[in-house]
User: What shape does this take?
Amino acid sequence: MRPVFRLAAAAMSALALPSCNFSMSVENMLSPPRLTVEQEQIYQALITAAGSSVSLRYPKSGTRLSAFTVEDLDGDGSDEAIVFYEAGRAAAEENPLRICLLDQQDGAWKSVSDYPAEGAEIDRVDVERLGTNARTNLIVSYSAVDGADHAAGVYHYENGALERSLSVPYTVMALRDLNQDGTPELFTASSGKAPSPATATVYELNESGRYVPSQLNLPESFTDVSRLLFGSLPAEDGSIGSAIYMDGSTGATTVQTAVLLYSGGALSLLYADRHDYLPNTERPAGCATMDIDDDGEMEIPIGTSFYGWTNPEVGSPLLMTSWYVCRSGRLMREYASYYSVQENYVFIMPEKWERRVTAVQENDEIVFYAFDTAANQNDGLPVLTEQLLRLAVVTDPIAADAMQSEGYMLLRRQGNQYYLGKRLSAGSRLALTESELFFAMKVL
Assistant: This one.
């Protein structure tokens, strides 16, 4: 934030502070959603079977956020219902979270069976076919009370009962069509726990109802799995496949990226860091793999000193982030950028700036300069020639308006943050056009 506006912003921030006497929590302000007519009928059938002292429980994420899952689970043309609830009569040694299966009999809902759940809380619920098997599966993801341990249960409705066909612990889980056959597979990854390494597994359900798992060990450096993404994978013959991108924790503050491929029923490691091959992907934990250019293919961020700094130990240079794609098992560099994890944006440097432009921090702004590519100062610092762009992020709308009157352009606004840029050196072959500047600014 520019110094001239700091006092006013501080005063406005002080006015926005909540009162210490305000004790109502978000939980107290929320109430369960109103039930539909069908849900009310199912709920009354649940009370008849389990007693009046029941409380509904809801998934925490996903597209199915209701306590009621109503689907045709057995393919007979009529719906069944799954209800998650807790009963007050549960014994101390029992898991209070339960699953009730209800079906329609003579036009009315009736409880068919009741089961203890496999976890304390419901993470998410999915209803999917898996692999080449035609049956409809109920996939329930559970977590422990502290959220540390997770498990997935896969069920199907058969012969009047809810049958569990698979139960697997996981750190991260996804349902994804990894082999592009039109139906999803179940993918899980689990953190390493000495002496066992971190692993990734694909479960494909075949026509006979048997799971065919394919598992591999993740790189030894992975102690945890922090991020899971799926992206397109261009092949040399022009076809587009699918890859699994995993950011794995390698220390308290660092991550690496591994790229996996599932093809022909086998999971393989397409890319992982090697000591004898550069670049390596180890970087600060906040720098996440993402689709930075929205083309469906994931890019992996790798940090180096900005161009022009021949002695990175002098002058505390900013970190330049290059973005790499994985092709044929190797990393290929696509973009250079400035990546601000704290202020949640990436500025992609245009190709014409390649090895000609560097960046420095001046007060609270990032300033891009052309530099002399043929000379350096005695201490290894670059010789700056012309100023090309200034980037600033402010949270004060008055400051944002004032800066626009000084020639800054408002590039993006997200929440209470204003992202501004000021183009300089008009007429220079390295100067940016307005469209180039807008395209280059990516707010995450």
Summary: Helices lie at 6-15, 26-29, 37-50, 397-405, 434-440. The first helix runs from residue 6 to 15. Residues 60 and 416 are 27 Å apart (CA to CA). The longest strand covers residues 382-394.
